[in-house]
Amino acid sequence: MSKEIRFEVESVNAKGATLANVITDKETGVQYLLAIYPNMGSGLTVLVDADGKPLLKK
Fold this sequence. Notes:
The chain is mainly beta. The chain has strands spanning about 5-10, 20-25, 30-35, 40-45. The chain has a four-stranded antiparallel β-sheet with strand order 1-2-3-4, with no helix packed on it.
């Protein structure tokens, strides 16, 4: 039984971060930003629009 991959990962450029990805939940369309900084750590946050609602991929 094969499972469909739920998340789509897209690499993006971000100032200061060694690695930055936009991760999209293919079931909900909600997008997240993952930024990794060498020797400092990483962060993951939901992307929001101007009204503070989760950013959805169209």
